[in-house]
Specification:
There is one protein chain. By secondary structure, this protein is α/β, with parallel strands linked by helices. Among the domains are: 1-16 and 37-171; 350-449, Serine Threonine Protein Phosphatase 5, Tetratricopeptide repeat (Alpha Horseshoe), CATH 1.25.40; 459-596, Glutaredoxin. The chain is 60% helix and 7% strand. The chain has 28 helices and 9 strands. The chain has helices at 5-15, 21-26, 28-34, 46-58, 63-74, 81-97, 121-135, 142-153, 157-170, 175-190, 206-209, 212-223, 227-247, 249-269, 275-289, 294-307, 311-327, 331-344, 351-371, 375-387, 391-395, 402-409, 413-423, 431-442, 497-513, 529-538, 552-556, 584-596, and strands at residues 192-195, 201-204, 468-470, 476-478, 486-492, 518-525, 545-548, 564-568, 574-579. The strands form 3 sheets. A 5-stranded mixed sheet has the order 7-6-5-8-9. A two-stranded antiparallel ribbon has the order 1-2. Strands 3-4 form a two-stranded antiparallel sheet. The protein is globular.
Amino acid sequence: MGLTAASLNQSLKASGTVRTLYLALFFLAADLALAQTTSPPEIETPAEAVRVEASLAANPEDISARDRLLLYYSTRNPVTDAVRAARRRHILWLIEHHPENWSHNTWVELIPPPPDALADPEGEAEATRLWRSQAVRPGAAPRAISNAAYFLYFHDRSFALQVLEQARQRNPSDAGLSRTKGLVDALTITGATAVGKNGDPVRFDSGLADSPSAANSREELSVTTNPDVLSGATESILKQFGSLSADRPEFARTLLDLAEAWIQRVLAMNPGDASLGDRFAIAYVQAANFTTDDAQRAPLFERAAAHARTAEWRVSALFQVVEFHFQSGQVERAREEADEILRKAPELYVASQRVYATHIADATLGRIALSQGDVVEARKQLTAAGKLATADLARLNGIRWTLASELLARGERGAVLDYLATVRAVSNKSQVQLDDWAKSIRAGEIPDFTGTADPAPRLVGTPAPDFRIRNLDGKEVALSSYKGKAVLLDFWATWCVPCRAELPMFQKLHRELAAKHAAIVLVDVGENAGPVAKYVRGEKYTFPVLLDEDEQVKTQYRLVVFPSLVVIDKQGRIRSVIGGAVTEDRVRAALKSAESAN
């Protein structure tokens, strides 16, 4: 079973993965692999779902139709009992009739635990019963037993380990069973007790991680000569790293070193297999993409770059470490990496990737030159980067502005205006915003280039659109009820990792400003009250939370990214719109500007 490239993108959106540029590039490989396959369109309306259900009733073995329906039900909002029942029906059918096709890597086939809206205790109980039956069925395929063992590990650990070991004894050379053995060993070592919507562990028990069972798993992995067992354990540790590092950061770093040691053993066992390097590079990139701490993310990309063998994966990792090394003062290392990106760019398979890689390298080399006082070289690199700007680059929000901003600080207005003119035709910024930037530059100012994807610039300076939506207690609240106060609206969602990372900052500001003429108001987009309330109250946040369940307020404010901040002054005018993650200093500055506005 599998998803189309378009379905993968939809899945990422629904599961809350932050759609940064490097993540888009990471999944470009999936687009390429599926580019030659003509896939049916996704289901978008209830009427279409009814038609596909009717077709499936006549032809229940149409796995493609079942995949499409599962994706449709998994992305519905709101999640009703009928949606859960429909999801359950298809998931259980797959377990019963095609257990070898079920995949714990495809989140649409999973039933996540509470408080997720898709949680379904009835379905989970029935799935457990079916998997137990499949695990002991005579003649069961090794792949089916692997799938059963993974699912049952979180429901009946001893039974899962028992049936997996019995299957391995019957099929000692089966790589899939060996990889699952390594995977469950790693789950025991980390103390994982539940998986979330994306299929990765989200809950950990330190008692299990410190238990004799975990110690035994470590010992087995330290002596095994089976590279598939080690590979399964390694990739499992890396998939868990983001969640685990948020729960036990020191423990996570220790396990990361352990996983790298396993990788080195696998590589030593297979010195002629160049594909292994890319496999482990991909696993490190995945771990980095779902890790929110920059200090932990950079070493993951460094390891990815070290293991990558093909240009695509080497360059994808270098995109990240070159910036990290430049910012940390390792300028010569950053220059070497930017030069390597330039050398490898022609080897990239896709034209847009080649353009992006060269654009990034030129901009980075310009910043390095400027940091060393070579303004002439920096101007030259800015010009080269501008000439590479394309519509594809803009679509990925890939046009770089940092070098332009740094050159403006040196008084290089002419070079930056030329750059602005060069990229204007393809930029995803609005012409109004580009005109405003040009006006600011001519006036000797340095515009704020940091906003992502043109976040509603035309609304700045206009009255904030009023709205009336429910809070977590079901009471309707209007924006106009905050009249006379400066208001910061934070548009977020529980699935958005960067959004959640900012909430402690907003709680701090809320406590500080509650008695003053300013208000921090959180607007959750597209979710039901239940899971949002459970999360907010579980974290003991006290700021007001409003529910934009049908996303009409988000549409009113023309927002395109999460998180997004809208800062409104005391007169009810929008002072600024900021797309993407922000620092506390920037939020305070925006609020101060709003409070002092006349």
